[in-house]
Design brief:
- With 236 residues, the protein is an all-alpha fold.
- Helix content is 86%, strand content 0%.
- The protein has helices spanning 2-27, 29-49, 53-85, 88-93, 99-128, 133-136, 139-168, 173-184, 186-200, 208-233.
């Protein structure tokens, strides 16, 4: 029945998420590599730009999202690479559930891992650029910033998960994934960076919520398209 299939699908999504979390807790390779890479990006910008705390409010959103995006691409590369290397992807494809279950399971795992790396990076961002977002931003603005982080990460991983599955079938996946991913996620990056800038530097003539709504719309579009195409992506 439909109810049984829905329950089986939801259980399969939870099982995939649990498998990825247990694997990450054992190896710690995805979150650790994303965190170290994003810290290196912040260090490069910190020493080359040498901006003060006032300029950091202006340039900080772009720097922060560059670190997030570059680190996220590194994590997405490992999302399906480990499955292909261990050939466990064939076992997942043989499971008696819809192929979209694998997409949603991997999507949630990638979002969780990327958010963990981002949360760990925020204190270092504030230290490097002499900012204290807790005191400089009102509580409502800080909560809005966390919402932008969550929605932007979801939109990035929504399309990144599918393209990571495409790149995993090639021998040059480390190079191919950024080439495929970065042009597609330009609307997500622009929406996230612009909304973050308006949160850090409020403008009476503009509101971050317009960019947030645009960002949410792209998230929905990317998730629907990826969900419809993922079954064909997994085929050899």
């Amino acid at each position: 029945s439909e109810a049984t299939f829905t329950g089986l699908s939801s259980n399969a999504v939870v099982a995939i998420i649990g498998k990825d979390i247990r694997s990450e807790l054992r190896t710690k390779e995805m979150v650790a590599s994303m965190f170290v890479f994003s810290v290196l990006v912040l260090l490069v910008f910190n020493f080359t730009l040498a901006i003060d705390s006032d300029a950091a409010l202006e340039h900080g959103p772009a720097i922060l999202w560059i670190a997030f995006i570059f680190a996220g691409s590194l994590g997405l590369n490992r999302s399906f690479a480990a499955e292909r290397e261990n050939r466990s992807i064939h076992g997942l494809m043989l499971a008696p559930v819809d192929r979209s279950v694998l997409y949603f399971g991997k999507l949630v795992s990638n979002v969780l891992f990327m958010l963990v790396a981002e949360v760990c990076l925020l204190p270092l961002f504030m230290v490097f650029f002499n900012m204290n977002l807790f005191s400089e931003l009102p509580p409502s603005a800080f909560l809005t910033f966390l919402l932008v982080m969550a929605v932007g990460t979801l939109g990035y991983c929504a399309v990144g998960t599918t393209l990571a599955a495409v790149a995993a079938n090639t021998t040059m996946r480390e190079v191919l994934l950024p080439v495929l991913l970065f042009p597609v996620v330009v609307p997500v990056v622009i929406g996230a960076a612009e909304s973050t800038r308006l949160i850090f530097q409020p403008d009476p003539l503009s509101s971050p919520w317009g960019w947030i709504r645009l960002l949410a719309a792209f998230c929905v579009v990317f998730m629907v398209v990826s969900w419809l195409a993922f079954e064909y992506v997994l085929e050899e």
